[in-house]
Amino acid sequence: MQKLMSILWPSFLVAGIAEGIFFTLVDPQELLLFGEPVHLSRMAIYSLGFFAFWLICGASSLVTCYLRNTSDEVNHHPTHGHPGHA
Amino acid sequence: MTEQVTTKPADLASVPDAQVVKFMPRAEKSSDKPAEDEEVSLYEVRKKIHPRAVTGMFANMRWTFVFLTQALYYGLPWLQWNGRQAVLFDLVQRKFYIFGLVLWPQDVFYLAVILIISAFSLFLFTTVAGRLWCGYTCPQTVYTEIFMWVEQKIEGSRNQRIKLDGEPMSVRKFGLKAAKFSIWGAIAFWTGFTFVGYFTPIHVLGHEFFTWTLGPWETFWVFFYGLFTYMFAGHLREQVCLHMCPYARFQGVMFDPDTLVITYDVERGEPRGARKKGVEPASIGKGSCVDCEICVQVCPTGIDIRDGLQYQCIGCAACIDACDQVMDKMGYPRGLIRYSTEHAVKEHWGRKEVLGHIIRPRVLLYAALLGIIVAGLGWSLLTRVPLMVNIIRDRATLAREVEGGNVENVFRLQIMNTAEQRRKFVMTVGGMDGVSIATTTRFEIDPATTATEVLRVQAPADSGHRGSNPIYFEVRAEDNQDVFVHEKAVFIQP
Ligand code: SF4
Ligand code: SF4
């Protein structure tokens, strides 16, 4: 649970900032998806855009979390007892 | 409020034993607490904190801010201005309305400056008096305060709440919890609705809501924001400050030894210990702290301020109010816990010296920067021309010869009338001999609207030289000669 939050929350914050900057500079109606204009309302594009950003940032946090595992956690070394999943 | 610190020390007089002031074991130490009180929360296995309600000067101040900020937050979207919503961040039209000001995506600069001003104000306040923002105005504090008030009205005082949480589920417990959760839910919903009302006109939103025609995304965001409010203020509470808030992490760097923070006067308080009412601390070889732990019980983050300044302390001053009331009951002077500075405690400064040290280089620097930025913003807003013009050469059409020995270039013209009234504009061109506009030069544009036109510009074939020739356009409002824009462009001679 704690791990999940440390992935979801920072990515949520950063996604919010990214969303703000991106859509101030780019008008969603001018976006092209596979060369086609996007036939969605601005509201829908903003919302989907936010979740796309959240997903990307979340992926980054996930990798951070994954790489931060201690060597013990990776080794599952029996003499060190149970790896602490904290 | 049913539960006040003042009601407690009344029994000080009646119970002769030295232990009288020991009301409740503090949350962290108590081992007799039922296990249900421990909950696995998002960030840690934590003991649920049941803050005791508190009254006093700082509590009143907190409530004043709750009312001010919430009147502003809930009320502002309903305010009208010039026949439209006064404050509206219209995402669909991509225009921000803030009273008389209309900001376009091109004005992102202003938004950036406003953010910088907010940041600097925060630095300034934090340097002078610590976490004022956290203690009084942060939405996290404000909504927690409101939600806790509801909780207390329904479930009763701290002790009653602790007892209730320890009980097995019963009809009564279920009823109380259901009532609490529904009222929380209603507040959260209203908060979410208001939030969305800043981005879509709230009157329309209200109408759509009552006719069940609310768009899917609007509905989604109302509930999304509402859910966040509910979780943050109802359940996560101090954990937001401890684990989720970026400001809480870096506010410490703005502190210096002259920053006003909530301080426990160790010298005066220690050694702490229980005693009968009215006993002079010196006569029993003790300090002024009666070790009642009320300051711990009122603390929303569950810390003991007597352990010194901690990053968990959000500066809400609840412990000051609580301690002052105990001091009053004991007949001791107030201020065992008070706003003070590191220097002041060390050097035994009085109020005057503390206030005198507010003005120091760091504070002056922040204040000066803030002043300059605010002045700059004000000046640029006052002198802002409510007109924007965009002229791009049409790449699809080449420069070509037309009748009368002229060469024609085609431009795409965008005129944005950012004023709040309908305006007529006249356009002229110059910079080359004989250059003229072959299409219309007069435009009438609605308030806060963009007009897009195709502009055909002609010049004699012998004017200028082959290749690019610089020209300029001027767009001027008919009713006000000061409202004009000068735009450069390039005319191609083949
Ligand atoms: S720590 Fe953060 S969330 Fe908590 S009161 Fe301060 S600013 Fe608000
Ligand atoms: S220690 Fe005092 S000021 Fe700090 S959070 Fe707790 S009650 Fe508020």
List keywords for this structure.
heterodimer; A: 86 residues; two-stranded antiparallel sheet; 3 helices; elongated; B: alpha+beta; Immunoglobulin-like; 3 domains; four-stranded antiparallel β-sheet; 17 helices; 18 strands; disordered N terminus; binds iron/sulfur cluster
Briefly note the structural class of the backbone of chain B: alpha+beta
> What is the number of helical segments of chain B per DSSP (H or I, 4+ residues)?
17
Number of discrete domains of chain B: 3
Helix content of chain B: 40-55%
Count of helix runs of chain A: 3
Q: Compute the CA-based radius of gyration of chain A.
A: 19 Å
**Rounded mean pLDDT score of chain B:** 85
What order do the strands of the largest sheet of chain A run in, or round the barrel if closed? 1-2
What is the terminal separation of chain B in angstroms? 84 Å
